[in-house]
């Protein structure tokens, strides 16, 4: 054997196809922005009419409603909330007491008025969250916070220390203040922070996230702060967090190898990091004296197999010292999956999906992790539970219960697990009820199953007028995502119900709305997600097409009446509907999308998604990636179909297509939507529309007004093609 034979085989790099639209990747160049402004002007002139304004106003009234439930987080004796309304479009960070929260009129203490801050500093700040410093004494008040502010709605933020006593920022050098970057930060006591950020050359991963974590002390500088943890440049990110549970204080470091695998370490007294010995694909939670593990893949452990999507628990200290005894708390089946868990003082609550409807399980650690289902929720609904404050000495077993459905406004309840099931126990108490924004009595929500190309049953929810004729003449809007193990469970259709569902065709047919629970999502746990990874990506698109075909076969709609929408990974889904299944749809709305899968790893945070899609720089992986790279499928797909909506060169056809994005999107970036729209236009396709907001980040909106206009614009474009 030669020396060269001992060397690892080098992967073959894929060639990069010629791309005439690379100039649109220069995000802020004069040429690119001139093109963007021209496209915006065309789209606005064509669709922003009186009907658009009325739709946007209705959506805004829903988003700005004073009757929305103000969701709160309990810290100490206060309940904190971030709120936007018509008078405060950028929002108010505020707090109240429990007695005031449950009163008919809540009295809020304003901590930070973001609109006033933006005006004072002449900067369009977008509130991105706050992290409070836990006091050392249990009965002491919370006094400091770290406030994150984005200058444009993107992921990059500045971090400033805020006094909860004076209700003002603490200026540097006395206070902490970090420059704008993609930063994660954690308190390490009152006078130090763990900071993962952009520290200059070689401090970021290929995904654009921090690969180094430093410990910054009060009055010090980031440049001089010592590094405490780092990861290789080809991993996704490094992060350090602190468990502040009293009596169980611990510091953890995470090495995110890729989007779905990570290594978790715990800080030792000598400053070294101890790796927690669990599979890298697993979710890990160290809570008090227990280690909880939920593997994404089947886990072969000594003489047993822990199924993917299970939840198991072990004694933390025993596990550290070599014991592999554990208890299975939850095991999935063909219909049920684990969505999440939350500890109260004495119990564990599990959020479960069964055929995409919620179930709640109560687990009692003191009874050997005995599990039983709680009689909470309703069919075809979403019910979630979470602890209020597991360290509250009086209410540590209290929990929030939130319920919602497509036609059922959100309800917030609060209950206690103390004495749950006994004769003295009381059901959860109603705390807040969101209003109805449309007359739900005219509609019905149903669940159906389509059969995909490989025989898999794919669930979908349909919201339609009651007694709707099944003659194919009903306008329908489909929505889907199908990626990153994200589930699309039922939620109240406030703005959709008040606008899209109220639309009528000239023949008087009202619109319907459909949510497709396709593979790639998390509706049936890790197996549902893994079924559409990388070379199996086409399964997600076959599933969505199968739902569309099922709607047509059942007589709900026909191609000319069928629209579809999706954003981000759902935008890639829409790109594949445009290029591979054009015969099924009359119109498509494709938002903040991935589309150019040859260059996605070179754009914004794209490299972090290699575990989901594959690495296009490797020739063997580009071979399957190019089969779902919508930008490149334009060159080979879109066969002739006489019933399709818009004709391009060589008689090829596609649905009417609307691409929308934001200049400030620093996650996916605006360039893929730009390039797809420009290419389709130049190929001769008509009915291709584009719009790009300057700010708003990956969500496409930095306030409710912008969000309402984005939604109204999408609806107006889709309706012109499927509703007239």
Q: Can you walk through the features of this model?
A:
By secondary structure, this protein is of the alpha+beta class. The chain has an eight-stranded mixed sheet with strand order 32-33-35-34-36-37-40-41, sandwiched between helices. Strands 5, 6, 7, 8 and 9 form a five-stranded antiparallel sheet that branches. The protein starts with 29 loop residues before the first helix and ends with a helix. Residues 510-714 form the Peptidase S9 prolyl oligopeptidase catalytic domain. This is S9 family peptidase.
Topology readout:
Layout: H1 30-47, H2 50-63, E1 73-75, E2 78-85, E3 88-96, H3 98-101, E4 109-113, H4 114-121, E5 126-132, E6 144-150, E7 157-163, E8 168-169, E9 177-181, E10 184-187, E11 192-196, E12 212-217, E13 227-230, E14 237-243, E15 250-256, E16 262-267, E17 273-275, E18 283-287, E19 290-294, E20 299-301, E21 304-306, E22 311-315, H5 316-320, E23 327-330, E24 336-343, E25 348-354, E26 357-364, E27 370-374, E28 382-387, E29 398-405, E30 408-416, E31 429-433, E32 443-451, E33 457-465, E34 476-479, H6 494-498, E35 512-516, H7 526-530, H8 538-553, E36 562-567, H9 569-580, E37 587-591, H10 610-613, H11 619-625, H12 630-633, E38 646-647, E39 653-654, E40 656-662, H13 671-682, E41 688-693, H14 704-722
Parallel strand pairs: 34-35, 34-36, 36-37, 37-40, 40-41
Antiparallel strand pairs: 1-2, 2-3, 3-4, 5-6, 6-7, 7-8, 7-9, 10-11, 11-12, 12-13, 14-15, 15-16, 16-17, 18-19, 19-22, 20-21, 22-23, 24-25, 25-26, 26-27, 28-29, 29-30, 30-31, 32-33, 33-35, 38-39
Helix pairs in contact: 2-14
């Amino acid at each position: 054997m030669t020396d060269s034979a001992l060397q690892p085989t080098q992967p073959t790099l894929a060639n990069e196809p010629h791309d005439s639209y690379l100039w649109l990747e220069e995000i802020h160049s004069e040429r690119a922005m001139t093109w963007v402004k021209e496209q915006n002007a065309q789209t606005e002139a064509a669709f922003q009419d009186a009907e658009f304004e009325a739709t946007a106003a209705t959506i805004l009234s829903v988003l700005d409603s004073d009757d929305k439930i103000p969701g709160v987080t309990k810290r100490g004796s206060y309940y904190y909330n971030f709120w936007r309304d018509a008078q405060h479009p950028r929002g108010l960070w505020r707090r109240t007491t429990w007695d005031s929260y449950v009163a008919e009129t809540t009295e809020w203490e304003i901590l930070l008025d973001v609109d006033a801050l933006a005006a004072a500093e002449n900067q369009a700040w977008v509130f991105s969250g706050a992290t409070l410093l836990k006091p050392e004494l249990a009965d002491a008040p919370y006094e400091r916070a770290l406030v994150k502010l984005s200058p444009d709605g993107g992921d990059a933020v500045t971090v400033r220390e805020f006094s909860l006593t004076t209700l003002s920022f603490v200026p540097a050098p006395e206070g902490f203040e970090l420059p704008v970057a993609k930063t994660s930060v954690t308190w390490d006591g009152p006078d130090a922070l763990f900071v993962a950020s952009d520290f200059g050359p070689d401090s970021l991963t290929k995904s654009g996230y921090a690969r180094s974590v430093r410990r910054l002390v009060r009055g010090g500088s980031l440049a001089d702060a010592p590094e405490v943890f780092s990861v290789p440049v080809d991993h996704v990110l490094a992060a350090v967090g602190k468990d502040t549970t009293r009596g169980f204080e611990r510091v953890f470091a995470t090495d995110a190898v890729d989007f779905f695998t990570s290594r978790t370490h715990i800080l030792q007294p000598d400053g070294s990091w101890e790796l927690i010995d669990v599979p890298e694909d697993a979710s890990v939670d160290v809570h008090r004296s227990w280690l909880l593990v939920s593997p994404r893949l089947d886990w072969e452990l000594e003489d047993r197999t822990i199924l993917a999507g299970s939840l198991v628990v072990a004694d933390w200290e025993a596990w550290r010292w070599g014991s592999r005894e554990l208890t299975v708390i939850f095991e999935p089946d063909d219909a049920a999956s684990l969505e999440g868990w939350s500890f109260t003082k004495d119990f564990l609550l599990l959020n479960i999906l069964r055929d995409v409807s919620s179930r709640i399980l109560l687990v009692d650690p003191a009874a050997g992790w005995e599990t039983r289902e709680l009689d909470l929720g309703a069919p075809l609904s979403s019910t979630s539970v979470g602890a209020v404050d597991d360290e509250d000495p009086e209410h540590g077993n209290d929990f929030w219960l939130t319920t919602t459905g497509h036609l059922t406004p959100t309800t917030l309840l609060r209950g206690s697990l103390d004495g749950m099931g006994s004769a003295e126990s009381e059901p959860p108490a109603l705390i807040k009820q969101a209003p109805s924004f449309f007359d739900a009595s005219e509609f019905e929500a149903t669940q159906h199953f389509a059969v995909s190309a490989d025989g898999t049953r794919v669930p979908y929810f349909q919201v339609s007028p009651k007694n709707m004729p099944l003659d194919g003449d009903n306008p329908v809007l489909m929505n889907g995502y199908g990626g990153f193990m994200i589930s699309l469970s039922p939620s109240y259709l406030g703005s959709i119900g008040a606008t899209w569902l109220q639309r009528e065709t000239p023949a008087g047919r009202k619109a319907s709305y459909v949510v497709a629970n396709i593979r790639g999502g998390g509706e049936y746990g890790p197996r549902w997600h893994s079924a559409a990874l990388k070379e199996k990506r086409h399964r997600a698109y076959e599933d969505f097409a199968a739902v569309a075909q099922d709607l047509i076969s059942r007589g709900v709609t026909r191609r000319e009446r069928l629209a579809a929408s999706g954003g981000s990974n759902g935008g890639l889904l829409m790109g594949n509907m445009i290029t591979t299944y054009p015969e099924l749809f009359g119109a498509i709305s494709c938002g903040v999308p991935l589309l150019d899968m040859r260059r996605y790893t070179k754009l914004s945070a794209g490299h972090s998604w290699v575990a989901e899609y594959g690495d296009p720089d490797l020739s063997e992986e580009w071979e399957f990636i190019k089969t779902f790279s919508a930008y490149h499928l334009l060159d080979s797909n879109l066969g002739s179909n006489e019933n399709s909506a818009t004709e391009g060169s060589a008689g090829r056809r596609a649905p009417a297509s609307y691409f929308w994005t934001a200049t400030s999107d620093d996650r996916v970036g605006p360039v893929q939507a730009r390039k797809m729209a420009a290419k389709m236009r130049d190929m001769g396709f008509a009915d291709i529309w584009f719009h790009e907001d300057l700010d708003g980040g990956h969500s496409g909106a930095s306030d409710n007004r912008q969000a309402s206009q984005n939604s109204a614009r999408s609806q107006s474009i889709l309706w012109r093609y499927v509703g007239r």
